[in-house]
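User: Structure with pyridoxal-5'-phosphate, C-alpha coordinates only please.
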Amino acid sequence: MGYVQGLKCRECGREYPVAPVYVCEFCFGPLEVVYDYEGIKKILTKEKIFSRPQNLWRYKELLPIDGEPTSGLYSGFTPLVRADKLAKIIGVKNLYIKDDTVTHPTLSFKDRVVAVALSKAREFGFDTVACASTGNLAHSVSAHGAAGGFKRFIFIPASLERSKIIASLAYEPNLIAVDGNYDEVNRLCSEVANKYRWAFVNINIRPFYAEGSKTQGYEIVEQLGWKAPDAVVVPSASGSLLTKIWKSFKEMKQIGLIDELNTKVFSAQATGCSPIVAAIKQGVDVIKPVKPDTIAKSLAIGNPADGYYATQVVKESGGFGEDVSDQEIIDAIKLLARAEGIFAETAGGVTLASAIKLIKEGYIKENSLTVLCITGNGLKTKEAIVGHTVEPYYIQPNLRSFEETLKKINEK
Ligand SMILES: *Cc1c(COP(=O)(O)O)cnc(C)c1O
Ligand SMILES: [Zn+2]
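Assistant:
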Protein backbone atom coordinates (compact mmCIF):
# COMPACT_ATOMS: atom_id res chain seq x y z
CA MET A 1 0.00 0.00 0.00
CA GLY A 2 2.95 2.35 0.51
CA TYR A 3 3.89 5.20 -1.82
CA VAL A 4 7.57 5.23 -0.92
CA GLN A 5 9.83 4.75 -3.94
CA GLY A 6 13.10 4.56 -2.05
CA LEU A 7 15.79 6.69 -0.47
CA LYS A 8 17.81 9.33 -2.26
CA CYS A 9 21.02 11.15 -1.33
CA ARG A 10 20.33 14.84 -0.82
CA GLU A 11 23.77 15.70 -2.20
CA CYS A 12 24.58 13.46 -5.18
CA GLY A 13 21.09 12.12 -5.88
CA ARG A 14 22.14 8.47 -5.77
CA GLU A 15 19.19 6.19 -4.99
CA TYR A 16 18.93 3.43 -2.41
CA PRO A 17 16.28 0.83 -1.59
CA VAL A 18 14.34 1.23 1.66
CA ALA A 19 16.56 0.04 4.53
CA PRO A 20 17.75 1.26 7.94
CA VAL A 21 20.51 3.37 6.39
CA TYR A 22 21.03 7.12 6.60
CA VAL A 23 24.16 8.26 4.75
CA CYS A 24 25.20 7.96 1.14
CA GLU A 25 28.02 5.45 0.69
CA PHE A 26 29.59 7.61 -2.00
CA CYS A 27 29.46 11.18 -0.71
CA PHE A 28 28.28 10.81 2.94
CA GLY A 29 25.27 13.03 2.19
CA PRO A 30 22.08 12.39 4.20
CA LEU A 31 19.40 10.17 2.68
CA GLU A 32 15.85 11.36 2.16
CA VAL A 33 12.62 9.43 1.49
CA VAL A 34 11.23 9.72 -2.06
CA TYR A 35 7.50 9.30 -2.75
CA ASP A 36 5.27 8.66 -5.73
CA TYR A 37 3.46 12.00 -5.57
CA GLU A 38 1.43 11.30 -8.73
CA GLY A 39 -0.02 8.22 -7.04
CA ILE A 40 -0.62 10.07 -3.78
CA LYS A 41 -2.33 12.93 -5.61
CA LYS A 42 -4.94 10.54 -6.96
CA ILE A 43 -5.87 9.08 -3.60
CA LEU A 44 -5.20 11.66 -0.88
CA THR A 45 -8.05 14.13 -1.23
CA LYS A 46 -9.29 16.62 1.36
CA GLU A 47 -12.43 14.50 1.77
CA LYS A 48 -10.35 11.41 2.44
CA ILE A 49 -8.22 13.17 5.03
CA PHE A 50 -11.30 14.70 6.62
CA SER A 51 -12.96 11.29 6.99
CA ARG A 52 -10.08 9.89 9.05
CA PRO A 53 -9.42 10.00 12.82
CA GLN A 54 -7.74 13.15 14.14
CA ASN A 55 -4.19 11.93 14.54
CA LEU A 56 -1.01 12.28 12.50
CA TRP A 57 -1.72 9.13 10.49
CA ARG A 58 -4.52 10.87 8.60
CA TYR A 59 -1.75 11.83 6.13
CA LYS A 60 -0.29 8.31 6.07
CA GLU A 61 0.28 8.16 2.31
CA LEU A 62 2.85 10.96 2.86
CA LEU A 63 4.63 9.00 5.59
CA PRO A 64 7.28 6.34 4.99
CA ILE A 65 5.62 3.13 6.14
CA ASP A 66 4.45 0.23 3.98
CA GLY A 67 1.68 -1.28 6.10
CA GLU A 68 -0.61 0.06 8.78
CA PRO A 69 0.96 2.21 11.55
CA THR A 70 1.70 0.44 14.84
CA SER A 71 2.92 3.34 16.96
CA GLY A 72 1.54 6.76 17.90
CA LEU A 73 -2.02 5.95 16.92
CA TYR A 74 -3.24 8.83 19.08
CA SER A 75 -0.39 11.28 18.45
CA GLY A 76 -0.67 14.53 16.54
CA PHE A 77 -3.58 16.71 15.50
CA THR A 78 -2.88 19.19 18.24
CA PRO A 79 -4.86 22.45 18.43
CA LEU A 80 -4.05 25.44 16.27
CA VAL A 81 -4.89 28.16 18.75
CA ARG A 82 -5.95 31.61 17.52
CA ALA A 83 -3.91 33.95 19.74
CA ASP A 84 -5.60 37.36 19.57
CA LYS A 85 -4.50 38.58 22.99
CA LEU A 86 -0.89 37.71 22.37
CA ALA A 87 -1.12 39.14 18.85
CA LYS A 88 -2.12 42.52 20.22
CA ILE A 89 0.75 42.54 22.69
CA ILE A 90 3.43 41.64 20.16
CA GLY A 91 2.07 43.79 17.35
CA VAL A 92 0.55 41.50 14.72
CA LYS A 93 -3.04 40.99 13.58
CA ASN A 94 -3.31 37.36 12.56
CA LEU A 95 -1.50 35.03 14.94
CA TYR A 96 -1.80 31.33 15.70
CA ILE A 97 -0.03 28.96 18.08
CA LYS A 98 0.53 25.40 16.86
CA ASP A 99 0.20 23.90 20.31
CA ASP A 100 2.30 20.74 20.50
CA THR A 101 2.53 21.17 24.29
CA VAL A 102 -0.41 18.74 24.35
CA THR A 103 0.80 16.04 21.96
CA HIS A 104 -0.16 12.53 23.06
CA PRO A 105 1.42 10.93 25.02
CA THR A 106 4.56 12.83 26.10
CA LEU A 107 3.64 16.47 25.48
CA SER A 108 6.15 17.44 22.83
CA PHE A 109 6.32 17.32 19.04
CA LYS A 110 8.79 14.42 19.35
CA ASP A 111 5.77 12.10 19.60
CA ARG A 112 5.30 12.76 15.88
CA VAL A 113 8.75 11.61 14.81
CA VAL A 114 8.78 8.68 17.23
CA ALA A 115 5.36 7.47 16.01
CA VAL A 116 6.80 7.14 12.52
CA ALA A 117 10.23 5.85 13.60
CA LEU A 118 8.84 3.02 15.73
CA SER A 119 6.24 2.00 13.15
CA LYS A 120 9.13 1.76 10.68
CA ALA A 121 11.42 -0.01 13.17
CA ARG A 122 8.77 -2.69 13.54
CA GLU A 123 8.49 -3.10 9.77
CA PHE A 124 12.27 -3.55 9.67
CA GLY A 125 11.99 -6.24 12.39
CA PHE A 126 13.93 -4.52 15.19
CA ASP A 127 13.21 -5.55 18.78
CA THR A 128 15.28 -2.77 20.38
CA VAL A 129 14.84 0.97 19.93
CA ALA A 130 17.31 3.64 21.00
CA CYS A 131 18.04 7.34 20.68
CA ALA A 132 20.46 10.14 21.48
CA SER A 133 18.34 12.84 23.05
CA THR A 134 18.26 16.40 24.35
CA GLY A 135 15.33 15.37 26.58
CA ASN A 136 12.04 15.21 24.73
CA LEU A 137 13.10 12.41 22.43
CA ALA A 138 14.18 10.36 25.47
CA HIS A 139 10.75 10.89 26.98
CA SER A 140 8.95 9.96 23.77
CA VAL A 141 11.01 6.87 22.81
CA SER A 142 10.69 5.64 26.42
CA ALA A 143 6.89 5.93 26.22
CA HIS A 144 6.12 4.74 22.67
CA GLY A 145 8.76 2.02 23.06
CA ALA A 146 7.11 0.77 26.24
CA ALA A 147 3.67 0.73 24.63
CA GLY A 148 5.10 -1.11 21.62
CA GLY A 149 6.90 -3.73 23.71
CA PHE A 150 10.38 -2.76 22.52
CA LYS A 151 13.60 -2.97 24.53
CA ARG A 152 14.78 0.62 24.95
CA PHE A 153 18.21 2.23 25.27
CA ILE A 154 17.98 5.95 25.87
CA PHE A 155 21.15 8.07 25.81
CA ILE A 156 21.03 11.59 27.29
CA PRO A 157 23.47 14.21 28.57
CA ALA A 158 23.58 13.69 32.37
CA SER A 159 23.05 17.44 32.84
CA LEU A 160 19.43 17.43 31.59
CA GLU A 161 16.62 18.94 33.64
CA ARG A 162 15.67 16.65 36.52
CA SER A 163 11.96 16.75 35.56
CA LYS A 164 12.72 15.50 32.08
CA ILE A 165 14.89 12.65 33.36
CA ILE A 166 12.19 11.56 35.82
CA ALA A 167 9.53 11.74 33.09
CA SER A 168 11.56 9.25 31.02
CA LEU A 169 12.35 6.96 33.96
CA ALA A 170 8.64 6.48 34.63
CA TYR A 171 8.54 4.11 31.63
CA GLU A 172 11.52 2.06 32.89
CA PRO A 173 13.82 2.24 29.86
CA ASN A 174 17.55 1.60 30.10
CA LEU A 175 18.49 5.23 30.59
CA ILE A 176 22.14 5.94 29.91
CA ALA A 177 23.14 9.34 31.33
CA VAL A 178 26.39 10.34 29.65
CA ASP A 179 28.90 12.72 31.21
CA GLY A 180 29.04 15.00 28.18
CA ASN A 181 26.94 17.35 26.03
CA TYR A 182 24.48 16.26 23.33
CA ASP A 183 27.02 16.34 20.55
CA GLU A 184 29.22 13.94 22.53
CA VAL A 185 26.23 11.70 23.29
CA ASN A 186 25.37 11.67 19.60
CA ARG A 187 28.90 10.73 18.58
CA LEU A 188 28.92 7.86 21.08
CA CYS A 189 25.55 6.68 19.77
CA SER A 190 26.83 6.59 16.19
CA GLU A 191 29.50 4.15 17.39
CA VAL A 192 26.96 2.07 19.32
CA ALA A 193 24.64 2.06 16.29
CA ASN A 194 27.43 0.66 14.12
CA LYS A 195 28.00 -2.19 16.53
CA TYR A 196 24.52 -3.26 17.69
CA ARG A 197 21.48 -4.06 15.58
CA TRP A 198 19.21 -1.53 17.24
CA ALA A 199 16.84 0.99 15.74
CA PHE A 200 18.43 4.29 16.71
CA VAL A 201 15.52 6.52 15.77
CA ASN A 202 17.62 9.60 15.03
CA ILE A 203 20.61 7.78 13.57
CA ASN A 204 19.99 4.73 11.35
CA ILE A 205 16.21 5.33 11.23
CA ARG A 206 16.65 9.10 10.80
CA PRO A 207 15.41 9.41 7.20
CA PHE A 208 12.08 7.85 8.28
CA TYR A 209 11.94 9.43 11.74
CA ALA A 210 12.43 12.92 10.35
CA GLU A 211 9.44 12.55 8.03
CA GLY A 212 7.16 12.51 11.08
CA SER A 213 7.87 16.22 11.55
CA LYS A 214 6.00 16.96 8.33
CA THR A 215 2.72 16.19 10.06
CA GLN A 216 2.97 19.42 12.02
CA GLY A 217 2.99 21.29 8.71
CA TYR A 218 0.11 19.30 7.19
CA GLU A 219 -1.99 20.01 10.25
CA ILE A 220 -1.24 23.74 10.17
CA VAL A 221 -2.41 23.89 6.55
CA GLU A 222 -5.54 21.83 7.20
CA GLN A 223 -6.42 23.78 10.33
CA LEU A 224 -6.02 27.11 8.52
CA GLY A 225 -8.63 25.90 6.04
CA TRP A 226 -6.21 24.47 3.45
CA LYS A 227 -3.92 27.45 3.37
CA ALA A 228 -0.22 27.83 4.14
CA PRO A 229 0.63 30.69 6.52
CA ASP A 230 2.59 33.81 5.44
CA ALA A 231 5.15 33.24 8.19
CA VAL A 232 6.05 30.31 10.41
CA VAL A 233 8.52 30.51 13.29
CA VAL A 234 10.21 27.21 14.10
CA PRO A 235 12.53 26.39 17.02
CA SER A 236 15.67 24.72 15.69
CA ALA A 237 17.96 22.15 17.28
CA SER A 238 19.29 19.86 14.53
CA GLY A 239 17.25 21.93 12.05
CA SER A 240 15.17 18.94 10.98
CA LEU A 241 11.72 20.17 12.01
CA LEU A 242 12.23 23.43 10.12
CA THR A 243 13.20 21.67 6.89
CA LYS A 244 10.32 19.22 7.21
CA ILE A 245 7.67 21.87 7.76
CA TRP A 246 8.82 23.46 4.52
CA LYS A 247 8.80 20.07 2.80
CA SER A 248 5.23 19.46 4.01
CA PHE A 249 3.99 22.75 2.53
CA LYS A 250 5.69 22.01 -0.79
CA GLU A 251 4.20 18.52 -0.89
CA MET A 252 0.72 19.87 -0.24
CA LYS A 253 1.12 22.18 -3.19
CA GLN A 254 2.52 19.39 -5.32
CA ILE A 255 -0.44 17.10 -4.66
CA GLY A 256 -2.92 19.92 -5.13
CA LEU A 257 -4.17 20.38 -1.56
CA ILE A 258 -3.15 24.06 -1.68
CA ASP A 259 -2.82 26.36 -4.67
CA GLU A 260 -0.29 28.85 -3.41
CA LEU A 261 2.81 28.73 -1.26
CA ASN A 262 4.25 32.05 -0.11
CA THR A 263 5.38 31.07 3.37
CA LYS A 264 8.48 32.64 4.85
CA VAL A 265 10.20 30.22 7.24
CA PHE A 266 11.96 31.63 10.31
CA SER A 267 14.42 29.81 12.58
CA ALA A 268 14.44 30.47 16.34
CA GLN A 269 17.39 29.59 18.58
CA ALA A 270 18.84 30.48 21.97
CA THR A 271 21.82 32.82 21.74
CA GLY A 272 23.75 30.31 23.85
CA CYS A 273 23.39 27.75 21.05
CA SER A 274 22.64 29.44 17.76
CA PRO A 275 24.83 27.94 15.03
CA ILE A 276 21.99 27.94 12.49
CA VAL A 277 20.79 31.49 13.15
CA ALA A 278 24.38 32.74 13.17
CA ALA A 279 24.88 31.34 9.66
CA ILE A 280 21.58 32.87 8.51
CA LYS A 281 22.52 36.28 9.91
CA GLN A 282 25.98 36.16 8.37
CA GLY A 283 24.56 34.97 5.08
CA VAL A 284 26.90 31.99 4.92
CA ASP A 285 26.19 28.33 4.13
CA VAL A 286 28.72 26.82 6.49
CA ILE A 287 27.58 26.01 10.01
CA LYS A 288 30.19 26.71 12.64
CA PRO A 289 29.71 24.28 15.56
CA VAL A 290 29.38 25.81 19.04
CA LYS A 291 29.51 24.62 22.66
CA PRO A 292 25.94 25.03 23.97
CA ASP A 293 25.31 27.20 27.02
CA THR A 294 21.59 27.91 27.44
CA ILE A 295 18.58 26.98 29.54
CA ALA A 296 16.91 25.81 26.31
CA LYS A 297 18.41 22.34 26.67
CA SER A 298 15.97 20.71 24.25
CA LEU A 299 17.49 22.87 21.49
CA ALA A 300 21.10 22.55 22.66
CA ILE A 301 22.72 20.92 19.63
CA GLY A 302 26.01 22.64 18.87
CA ASN A 303 26.69 20.76 15.65
CA PRO A 304 23.29 20.48 13.93
CA ALA A 305 22.94 17.63 11.42
CA ASP A 306 20.42 19.50 9.26
CA GLY A 307 21.79 22.98 9.93
CA TYR A 308 22.94 23.56 6.36
CA TYR A 309 19.58 22.45 4.94
CA ALA A 310 17.76 24.69 7.41
CA THR A 311 19.71 27.73 6.17
CA GLN A 312 18.79 26.80 2.58
CA VAL A 313 15.07 26.61 3.43
CA VAL A 314 15.22 29.99 5.14
CA LYS A 315 16.95 31.45 2.08
CA GLU A 316 14.63 29.80 -0.45
CA SER A 317 11.50 30.90 1.40
CA GLY A 318 12.67 34.46 2.08
CA GLY A 319 12.65 34.04 5.86
CA PHE A 320 15.26 34.85 8.46
CA GLY A 321 16.37 33.82 11.95
CA GLU A 322 16.67 35.26 15.43
CA ASP A 323 18.32 34.23 18.67
CA VAL A 324 17.37 35.18 22.22
CA SER A 325 18.92 35.29 25.68
CA ASP A 326 17.93 33.07 28.61
CA GLN A 327 16.15 36.02 30.22
CA GLU A 328 14.16 36.65 27.03
CA ILE A 329 13.23 32.95 26.98
CA ILE A 330 11.91 33.12 30.55
CA ASP A 331 9.99 36.33 29.88
CA ALA A 332 8.41 34.80 26.78
CA ILE A 333 7.38 31.61 28.60
CA LYS A 334 5.60 33.81 31.15
CA LEU A 335 4.04 36.04 28.47
CA LEU A 336 2.60 33.06 26.60
CA ALA A 337 1.16 31.66 29.82
CA ARG A 338 -0.30 35.02 30.88
CA ALA A 339 -1.73 35.96 27.48
CA GLU A 340 -2.97 32.63 26.11
CA GLY A 341 -2.97 30.19 29.03
CA ILE A 342 -0.34 27.99 27.38
CA PHE A 343 2.62 26.89 29.48
CA ALA A 344 5.50 26.02 27.16
CA GLU A 345 8.91 24.60 27.83
CA THR A 346 12.06 26.60 27.13
CA ALA A 347 11.90 25.90 23.37
CA GLY A 348 8.52 27.64 23.33
CA GLY A 349 10.07 30.64 25.02
CA VAL A 350 12.74 30.65 22.32
CA THR A 351 10.10 30.65 19.57
CA LEU A 352 7.97 33.43 21.00
CA ALA A 353 10.91 35.64 22.02
CA SER A 354 12.46 35.24 18.56
CA ALA A 355 9.13 36.04 16.91
CA ILE A 356 8.86 39.24 18.96
CA LYS A 357 12.25 40.34 17.63
CA LEU A 358 11.42 39.38 14.05
CA ILE A 359 8.22 41.44 14.24
CA LYS A 360 10.02 44.45 15.73
CA GLU A 361 12.69 44.26 13.05
CA GLY A 362 10.06 44.11 10.29
CA TYR A 363 10.90 40.62 9.03
CA ILE A 364 7.38 39.54 9.99
CA LYS A 365 4.78 42.09 8.92
CA GLU A 366 1.83 43.22 11.00
CA ASN A 367 -0.68 41.70 8.56
CA SER A 368 1.16 38.42 7.96
CA LEU A 369 -0.77 35.28 8.88
CA THR A 370 1.79 34.00 11.37
CA VAL A 371 2.10 30.61 13.06
CA LEU A 372 4.39 30.00 16.03
CA CYS A 373 5.40 26.36 16.53
CA ILE A 374 5.25 25.77 20.26
CA THR A 375 6.80 22.34 20.53
CA GLY A 376 6.97 21.23 24.17
CA ASN A 377 5.19 21.48 27.51
CA GLY A 378 6.33 23.70 30.38
CA LEU A 379 5.71 20.99 32.96
CA LYS A 380 8.81 19.29 31.55
CA THR A 381 11.18 22.17 32.31
CA LYS A 382 9.71 23.74 35.42
CA GLU A 383 13.26 24.35 36.68
CA ALA A 384 13.65 27.07 34.05
CA ILE A 385 11.20 29.44 35.69
CA VAL A 386 11.77 28.64 39.36
CA GLY A 387 12.55 31.94 41.08
CA HIS A 388 11.11 33.92 38.16
CA THR A 389 7.40 33.49 38.89
CA VAL A 390 5.02 35.29 41.23
CA GLU A 391 4.87 33.82 44.74
CA PRO A 392 1.89 32.21 46.48
CA TYR A 393 0.17 34.11 49.30
CA TYR A 394 0.63 32.13 52.51
CA ILE A 395 -2.29 32.42 54.96
CA GLN A 396 -3.80 30.79 58.06
CA PRO A 397 -6.85 28.54 57.60
CA ASN A 398 -9.38 31.21 58.61
CA LEU A 399 -11.44 33.88 56.87
CA ARG A 400 -9.75 36.75 58.68
CA SER A 401 -6.33 35.74 57.44
CA PHE A 402 -7.70 35.40 53.91
CA GLU A 403 -9.39 38.77 53.98
CA GLU A 404 -6.28 40.53 55.24
CA THR A 405 -4.46 39.09 52.26
CA LEU A 406 -7.29 39.95 49.89
CA LYS A 407 -7.05 43.55 51.04
CA LYS A 408 -3.35 43.61 50.21
CA ILE A 409 -4.02 42.04 46.81
CA ASN A 410 -6.71 44.63 46.02
CA GLU A 411 -4.43 47.47 47.09
CA LYS A 412 -1.73 46.38 44.67
C1 LIG B 1 13.67 18.36 19.26
C2 LIG B 1 12.93 19.61 19.50
C3 LIG B 1 12.82 20.65 18.55
C4 LIG B 1 13.46 20.72 17.18
O1 LIG B 1 14.35 19.80 16.87
P1 LIG B 1 15.05 19.64 15.45
O2 LIG B 1 16.21 18.78 15.80
O3 LIG B 1 15.45 20.98 14.96
O4 LIG B 1 14.08 18.96 14.56
C5 LIG B 1 12.03 21.73 18.87
N1 LIG B 1 11.41 21.83 20.04
C6 LIG B 1 11.49 20.87 20.98
C7 LIG B 1 10.77 21.05 22.26
C8 LIG B 1 12.24 19.72 20.74
O5 LIG B 1 12.31 18.77 21.68
ZN1 LIG C 1 25.56 10.96 -2.17
